[in-house]
Amino acid sequence: MPEQTTGPRPTLEAVAARAGVSRATASRVVNGGAGVRAPLVDKVRRAVEELGYVPNHAARSLVTRRNGAVAVIIAEPEFRVFSDPFFEQQVRGISRELTAHDTQLVLLWVEGPGDHDRIARYLSGGHVDGALAFSLHDDDRLPALIGRTRVPAVFGGRPAAGSGQGVPFVDADNRGGARGAVRHLVSLGCRTIAHIAGPRDQTSALDRLHGYRDVLADADPALLCQGDFTEESGARAMAGLLERRPDVDGVFVANDVMASGALRTLRERGVAVPGDIAVVGFDDMASVAPRTDPALTTVRQDIEGMGRLMVRLLMRLLDGTGGEPPASVVTPVTLVRRASA
Protein backbone atom coordinates (compact mmCIF):
# COMPACT_ATOMS: atom_id res chain seq x y z
CA MET A 1 0.00 0.00 0.00
CA PRO A 2 1.27 3.56 -0.71
CA GLU A 3 2.52 5.34 2.39
CA GLN A 4 0.05 7.91 3.70
CA THR A 5 1.62 11.33 4.15
CA THR A 6 0.51 14.91 4.50
CA GLY A 7 3.92 16.32 3.56
CA PRO A 8 5.37 17.14 0.12
CA ARG A 9 4.63 14.62 -2.57
CA PRO A 10 7.33 11.96 -3.10
CA THR A 11 10.16 12.86 -5.47
CA LEU A 12 12.01 10.78 -8.03
CA GLU A 13 15.05 10.98 -5.76
CA ALA A 14 13.00 9.35 -2.98
CA VAL A 15 11.96 6.58 -5.36
CA ALA A 16 15.60 6.00 -6.33
CA ALA A 17 16.69 5.88 -2.69
CA ARG A 18 13.90 3.45 -1.75
CA ALA A 19 14.77 1.19 -4.70
CA GLY A 20 18.52 1.43 -4.09
CA VAL A 21 19.26 2.66 -7.63
CA SER A 22 20.55 5.85 -9.19
CA ARG A 23 18.19 8.70 -10.07
CA ALA A 24 18.97 8.12 -13.77
CA THR A 25 17.91 4.47 -13.51
CA ALA A 26 14.70 5.39 -11.68
CA SER A 27 13.97 8.02 -14.36
CA ARG A 28 14.43 5.53 -17.18
CA VAL A 29 11.99 3.09 -15.58
CA VAL A 30 9.37 5.74 -14.77
CA ASN A 31 9.57 7.25 -18.26
CA GLY A 32 9.41 3.94 -20.08
CA GLY A 33 13.01 3.88 -21.23
CA ALA A 34 14.92 0.75 -22.18
CA GLY A 35 18.21 -0.69 -20.98
CA VAL A 36 17.32 -1.41 -17.34
CA ARG A 37 17.63 -4.96 -16.00
CA ALA A 38 14.35 -6.63 -14.98
CA PRO A 39 15.20 -6.96 -11.25
CA LEU A 40 15.91 -3.21 -11.04
CA VAL A 41 12.72 -2.42 -12.93
CA ASP A 42 10.78 -4.42 -10.36
CA LYS A 43 12.48 -2.58 -7.48
CA VAL A 44 11.70 0.84 -8.96
CA ARG A 45 8.07 -0.05 -9.67
CA ARG A 46 7.66 -1.39 -6.13
CA ALA A 47 9.13 1.84 -4.73
CA VAL A 48 6.77 3.92 -6.90
CA GLU A 49 3.79 1.98 -5.52
CA GLU A 50 4.95 2.09 -1.90
CA LEU A 51 5.63 5.84 -1.95
CA GLY A 52 2.63 6.76 -4.08
CA TYR A 53 4.91 8.59 -6.52
CA VAL A 54 3.16 10.41 -9.39
CA PRO A 55 5.43 11.59 -12.25
CA ASN A 56 5.51 15.33 -12.87
CA HIS A 57 4.04 15.64 -16.36
CA ALA A 58 5.61 19.03 -17.07
CA ALA A 59 9.06 17.85 -16.06
CA ARG A 60 8.63 14.63 -17.98
CA SER A 61 7.66 16.59 -21.09
CA LEU A 62 10.89 18.59 -20.86
CA VAL A 63 12.88 15.37 -20.82
CA THR A 64 10.94 13.31 -23.34
CA ARG A 65 9.69 16.23 -25.51
CA ARG A 66 6.32 14.49 -25.45
CA ASN A 67 2.92 15.73 -24.30
CA GLY A 68 1.51 12.25 -23.77
CA ALA A 69 -1.55 13.08 -25.88
CA VAL A 70 -2.77 12.33 -29.41
CA ALA A 71 -5.51 14.13 -31.35
CA VAL A 72 -8.16 11.89 -32.91
CA ILE A 73 -9.87 13.85 -35.67
CA ILE A 74 -13.12 12.58 -37.17
CA ALA A 75 -14.09 14.45 -40.32
CA GLU A 76 -17.80 14.27 -39.54
CA PRO A 77 -20.24 16.39 -37.50
CA GLU A 78 -20.95 15.49 -33.89
CA PHE A 79 -24.33 13.85 -34.57
CA ARG A 80 -22.71 11.39 -36.98
CA VAL A 81 -19.86 10.63 -34.60
CA PHE A 82 -22.23 9.62 -31.80
CA SER A 83 -24.90 7.91 -33.90
CA ASP A 84 -22.78 5.70 -36.17
CA PRO A 85 -21.43 2.56 -34.44
CA PHE A 86 -18.48 2.47 -36.87
CA PHE A 87 -16.94 5.46 -35.12
CA GLU A 88 -17.61 3.94 -31.72
CA GLN A 89 -15.71 0.78 -32.62
CA GLN A 90 -12.78 2.58 -34.23
CA VAL A 91 -12.40 5.06 -31.35
CA ARG A 92 -12.59 2.13 -28.88
CA GLY A 93 -9.65 0.46 -30.60
CA ILE A 94 -7.69 3.72 -30.69
CA SER A 95 -8.43 4.46 -27.03
CA ARG A 96 -7.40 1.01 -25.83
CA GLU A 97 -4.12 1.12 -27.72
CA LEU A 98 -3.33 4.67 -26.56
CA THR A 99 -4.00 3.58 -22.98
CA ALA A 100 -1.50 0.77 -23.43
CA HIS A 101 1.04 3.45 -24.41
CA ASP A 102 0.11 5.68 -21.44
CA THR A 103 -1.16 8.35 -23.85
CA GLN A 104 -4.31 10.47 -23.65
CA LEU A 105 -6.90 10.76 -26.42
CA VAL A 106 -8.11 14.22 -27.47
CA LEU A 107 -11.24 13.87 -29.62
CA LEU A 108 -11.94 16.49 -32.31
CA TRP A 109 -14.62 16.50 -34.99
CA VAL A 110 -15.59 18.70 -37.91
CA GLU A 111 -18.95 20.47 -37.72
CA GLY A 112 -18.21 22.73 -40.69
CA PRO A 113 -15.44 24.30 -42.83
CA GLY A 114 -14.59 26.76 -40.06
CA ASP A 115 -13.42 23.93 -37.85
CA HIS A 116 -10.49 23.16 -40.14
CA ASP A 117 -8.58 26.30 -39.12
CA ARG A 118 -9.41 25.71 -35.44
CA ILE A 119 -8.01 22.17 -35.64
CA ALA A 120 -4.91 23.36 -37.49
CA ARG A 121 -4.26 25.99 -34.80
CA TYR A 122 -4.67 23.38 -32.09
CA LEU A 123 -2.25 20.97 -33.74
CA SER A 124 0.29 23.75 -34.34
CA GLY A 125 0.09 24.82 -30.69
CA GLY A 126 2.13 21.88 -29.47
CA HIS A 127 -0.66 20.36 -27.40
CA VAL A 128 -0.36 16.83 -28.85
CA ASP A 129 2.38 14.53 -30.07
CA GLY A 130 0.55 13.31 -33.15
CA ALA A 131 -2.78 13.01 -34.91
CA LEU A 132 -5.05 10.25 -36.16
CA ALA A 133 -7.67 11.32 -38.73
CA PHE A 134 -10.40 9.29 -40.40
CA SER A 135 -13.63 9.50 -42.40
CA LEU A 136 -11.86 11.87 -44.81
CA HIS A 137 -13.67 13.21 -47.89
CA ASP A 138 -12.36 14.06 -51.36
CA ASP A 139 -12.55 17.83 -50.85
CA ASP A 140 -11.32 17.67 -47.28
CA ARG A 141 -8.70 20.27 -46.33
CA LEU A 142 -7.61 18.25 -43.32
CA PRO A 143 -4.80 16.23 -44.98
CA ALA A 144 -3.15 19.39 -46.30
CA LEU A 145 -3.64 21.26 -43.03
CA ILE A 146 -2.21 18.40 -40.99
CA GLY A 147 0.74 18.26 -43.36
CA ARG A 148 1.48 21.96 -42.87
CA THR A 149 1.48 21.61 -39.08
CA ARG A 150 4.22 18.96 -39.41
CA VAL A 151 2.55 16.94 -36.65
CA PRO A 152 3.16 13.19 -37.18
CA ALA A 153 -0.06 11.64 -38.43
CA VAL A 154 -1.74 8.44 -39.58
CA PHE A 155 -4.98 8.33 -41.58
CA GLY A 156 -7.80 5.86 -41.17
CA GLY A 157 -8.79 4.91 -44.70
CA ARG A 158 -6.97 5.62 -47.94
CA PRO A 159 -7.01 9.36 -48.63
CA ALA A 160 -8.15 10.66 -52.01
CA ALA A 161 -5.59 10.84 -54.80
CA GLY A 162 -3.39 13.89 -54.46
CA SER A 163 -3.97 14.40 -50.72
CA GLY A 164 -2.10 13.16 -47.70
CA GLN A 165 1.07 12.40 -49.64
CA GLY A 166 3.63 10.58 -47.51
CA VAL A 167 1.22 10.01 -44.60
CA PRO A 168 0.71 6.32 -43.78
CA PHE A 169 -2.83 5.00 -43.61
CA VAL A 170 -4.71 1.93 -42.41
CA ASP A 171 -7.56 0.65 -44.54
CA ALA A 172 -9.50 -2.54 -45.25
CA ASP A 173 -9.59 -4.36 -48.57
CA ASN A 174 -12.82 -2.63 -49.56
CA ARG A 175 -12.67 -3.53 -53.24
CA GLY A 176 -11.83 -7.18 -52.64
CA GLY A 177 -14.52 -7.46 -49.99
CA ALA A 178 -17.11 -6.00 -52.35
CA ARG A 179 -16.14 -8.50 -55.04
CA GLY A 180 -16.58 -11.33 -52.54
CA ALA A 181 -20.01 -10.04 -51.50
CA VAL A 182 -21.28 -9.83 -55.08
CA ARG A 183 -19.82 -13.21 -56.01
CA HIS A 184 -21.63 -14.70 -53.03
CA LEU A 185 -24.94 -13.31 -54.33
CA VAL A 186 -24.14 -14.75 -57.76
CA SER A 187 -23.40 -18.14 -56.19
CA LEU A 188 -26.85 -18.10 -54.59
CA GLY A 189 -28.41 -17.82 -58.06
CA CYS A 190 -29.21 -14.09 -57.96
CA ARG A 191 -29.48 -12.70 -61.49
CA THR A 192 -30.44 -9.06 -60.93
CA ILE A 193 -28.06 -7.68 -58.31
CA ALA A 194 -28.24 -4.06 -57.19
CA HIS A 195 -25.80 -1.95 -55.20
CA ILE A 196 -26.63 0.70 -52.60
CA ALA A 197 -23.45 2.76 -52.59
CA GLY A 198 -21.99 5.06 -49.96
CA PRO A 199 -21.00 8.71 -50.50
CA ARG A 200 -18.83 9.02 -53.59
CA ASP A 201 -16.50 11.54 -51.97
CA GLN A 202 -15.09 8.80 -49.71
CA THR A 203 -12.61 6.26 -51.01
CA SER A 204 -14.10 3.36 -49.05
CA ALA A 205 -17.44 3.79 -50.81
CA LEU A 206 -15.80 4.21 -54.22
CA ASP A 207 -13.68 1.09 -53.72
CA ARG A 208 -16.79 -0.94 -52.83
CA LEU A 209 -18.58 0.42 -55.90
CA HIS A 210 -15.60 -0.56 -58.05
CA GLY A 211 -15.62 -4.04 -56.51
CA TYR A 212 -19.29 -4.41 -57.47
CA ARG A 213 -18.47 -3.32 -61.02
CA ASP A 214 -15.50 -5.70 -61.19
CA VAL A 215 -17.99 -8.57 -61.00
CA LEU A 216 -20.95 -6.98 -62.80
CA ALA A 217 -19.36 -4.70 -65.37
CA ASP A 218 -22.52 -4.58 -67.50
CA ALA A 219 -25.00 -3.94 -64.67
CA ASP A 220 -27.95 -1.72 -65.52
CA PRO A 221 -27.34 1.81 -64.11
CA ALA A 222 -30.86 1.61 -62.64
CA LEU A 223 -29.48 -1.01 -60.24
CA LEU A 224 -27.10 1.52 -58.68
CA CYS A 225 -28.52 3.56 -55.78
CA GLN A 226 -26.89 6.33 -53.77
CA GLY A 227 -26.80 6.49 -49.98
CA ASP A 228 -24.77 8.34 -47.36
CA PHE A 229 -23.94 5.52 -44.91
CA THR A 230 -27.01 6.30 -42.74
CA GLU A 231 -29.93 3.96 -42.04
CA GLU A 232 -32.52 6.31 -43.53
CA SER A 233 -30.58 6.63 -46.78
CA GLY A 234 -30.50 2.84 -47.06
CA ALA A 235 -34.27 2.66 -46.52
CA ARG A 236 -34.92 5.34 -49.16
CA ALA A 237 -32.55 3.76 -51.67
CA MET A 238 -34.22 0.37 -51.26
CA ALA A 239 -37.67 1.89 -51.79
CA GLY A 240 -36.53 3.63 -54.97
CA LEU A 241 -34.88 0.46 -56.20
CA LEU A 242 -38.08 -1.57 -55.79
CA GLU A 243 -39.96 1.01 -57.84
CA ARG A 244 -37.41 1.10 -60.67
CA ARG A 245 -36.46 -2.57 -60.78
CA PRO A 246 -39.07 -4.78 -59.09
CA ASP A 247 -37.24 -7.80 -60.54
CA VAL A 248 -34.18 -7.28 -58.29
CA ASP A 249 -33.28 -10.45 -56.40
CA GLY A 250 -30.00 -9.49 -54.72
CA VAL A 251 -28.57 -6.34 -53.12
CA PHE A 252 -25.04 -5.54 -51.99
CA VAL A 253 -25.15 -2.61 -49.57
CA ALA A 254 -22.00 -0.57 -48.87
CA ASN A 255 -22.33 -0.69 -45.08
CA ASP A 256 -24.31 -2.46 -42.37
CA VAL A 257 -26.19 0.63 -41.22
CA MET A 258 -27.64 1.27 -44.69
CA ALA A 259 -28.34 -2.46 -45.01
CA SER A 260 -30.42 -2.34 -41.83
CA GLY A 261 -32.49 0.44 -43.42
CA ALA A 262 -32.87 -1.56 -46.62
CA LEU A 263 -34.05 -4.60 -44.64
CA ARG A 264 -36.60 -2.43 -42.84
CA THR A 265 -38.05 -1.27 -46.17
CA LEU A 266 -38.23 -4.85 -47.46
CA ARG A 267 -39.96 -5.97 -44.27
CA GLU A 268 -42.51 -3.14 -44.52
CA ARG A 269 -43.21 -4.03 -48.16
CA GLY A 270 -43.70 -7.71 -47.35
CA VAL A 271 -40.67 -8.81 -49.36
CA ALA A 272 -39.14 -12.05 -48.09
CA VAL A 273 -35.41 -12.03 -47.31
CA PRO A 274 -33.63 -14.00 -48.60
CA GLY A 275 -36.47 -15.80 -50.40
CA ASP A 276 -37.32 -12.89 -52.72
CA ILE A 277 -34.25 -10.70 -52.30
CA ALA A 278 -30.91 -11.64 -50.74
CA VAL A 279 -29.03 -8.85 -48.93
CA VAL A 280 -25.32 -8.52 -48.10
CA GLY A 281 -23.79 -5.63 -46.13
CA PHE A 282 -20.27 -4.49 -45.28
CA ASP A 283 -18.55 -3.95 -41.88
CA ASP A 284 -19.96 -6.68 -39.57
CA MET A 285 -20.62 -4.26 -36.73
CA ALA A 286 -21.57 -6.22 -33.62
CA SER A 287 -24.32 -3.74 -32.69
CA VAL A 288 -25.96 -4.03 -36.13
CA ALA A 289 -25.32 -7.09 -38.31
CA PRO A 290 -26.33 -9.92 -35.92
CA ARG A 291 -29.39 -7.96 -34.72
CA THR A 292 -31.16 -7.15 -37.97
CA ASP A 293 -34.23 -9.10 -39.05
CA PRO A 294 -33.10 -11.40 -40.56
CA ALA A 295 -29.51 -11.38 -39.31
CA LEU A 296 -27.28 -9.77 -41.89
CA THR A 297 -24.76 -11.56 -44.07
CA THR A 298 -21.92 -9.09 -44.40
CA VAL A 299 -18.24 -8.50 -45.12
CA ARG A 300 -16.26 -8.25 -41.89
CA GLN A 301 -13.52 -5.70 -41.44
CA ASP A 302 -11.73 -5.51 -38.09
CA ILE A 303 -12.76 -1.95 -37.22
CA GLU A 304 -11.41 -1.95 -33.67
CA GLY A 305 -8.23 -3.68 -34.79
CA MET A 306 -7.65 -1.05 -37.45
CA GLY A 307 -7.94 1.64 -34.77
CA ARG A 308 -5.28 -0.14 -32.72
CA LEU A 309 -3.07 -0.47 -35.79
CA MET A 310 -3.34 3.27 -36.51
CA VAL A 311 -1.93 3.96 -33.03
CA ARG A 312 0.91 1.48 -33.50
CA LEU A 313 1.95 3.12 -36.77
CA LEU A 314 1.83 6.54 -35.12
CA MET A 315 3.97 5.35 -32.22
CA ARG A 316 6.53 4.08 -34.71
CA LEU A 317 6.55 7.54 -36.28
CA LEU A 318 7.01 9.19 -32.88
CA ASP A 319 9.78 6.78 -31.87
CA GLY A 320 11.58 7.06 -35.22
CA THR A 321 14.67 9.08 -36.03
CA GLY A 322 13.46 10.88 -39.13
CA GLY A 323 13.79 7.96 -41.53
CA GLU A 324 11.16 6.54 -43.85
CA PRO A 325 7.64 6.51 -42.38
CA PRO A 326 6.05 3.12 -41.74
CA ALA A 327 4.27 1.62 -44.72
CA SER A 328 0.51 1.90 -45.06
CA VAL A 329 -1.47 -1.23 -44.24
CA VAL A 330 -4.50 -2.74 -46.02
CA THR A 331 -6.12 -5.34 -43.78
CA PRO A 332 -7.94 -8.44 -45.04
CA VAL A 333 -11.71 -8.90 -44.90
CA THR A 334 -13.93 -11.97 -44.69
CA LEU A 335 -17.51 -12.80 -45.63
CA VAL A 336 -19.68 -13.67 -42.61
CA ARG A 337 -22.74 -15.67 -43.62
CA ARG A 338 -25.98 -15.20 -41.72
CA ALA A 339 -29.66 -15.46 -42.63
CA SER A 340 -30.07 -12.58 -45.12
CA ALA A 341 -28.11 -14.24 -47.95
What would your notes on this structure say?
The model has no long low-confidence stretch (mean pLDDT about 90). The longest helix is centred in the last third of the chain and has 17 residues, at about 305-320. The strands form 2 sheets. This protein has a 6-stranded parallel sheet with strand order 2-1-3-4-5-11, sandwiched between helices. Strands 7-6-8-9-10-12 form a 6-stranded mixed sheet, with helices on both faces. It contains 13 helices and 12 strands. It starts with 11 loop residues before the first helix and ends in a 5-residue tail after the last strand. Strand 3, helix 8 (about 140-150) and strand 4 (about 155) form a beta-alpha-beta unit. It has about 350 residues and is of the alpha/beta class. Helix 1 crosses helix 3 and helix 7 runs parallel beside helix 8 (about 140-150).
List the helices and strands and how they pair.
Elements: H1 12-19, H2 23-30, H3 38-51, H4 57-64, E1 69-74, H5 78-83, H6 85-100, E2 104-109, H7 114-124, E3 130-134, H8 142-149, E4 153-156, E5 169-172, H9 174-187, E6 193-197, H10 203-215, E7 224-226, H11 231-244, E8 250-253, H12 256-268, E9 278-283, E10 297-300, H13 303-319, E11 329-331, E12 334-336
Helix pairs in contact: 1-2, 1-3, 2-3, 6-13, 7-8, 9-10, 11-12
A few lines on this structure:
This protein has 341 residues and is of the alpha/beta class. It has helices at residues 12-19, 23-30, 38-51, 57-64, 78-83, 85-100, 114-124, 142-149, 174-187, 203-215, 231-244, 256-268, 303-319; strands at 69-74, 104-109, 130-134, 153-156, 169-172, 193-197, 224-226, 250-253, 278-283, 297-300, 329-331, 334-336.
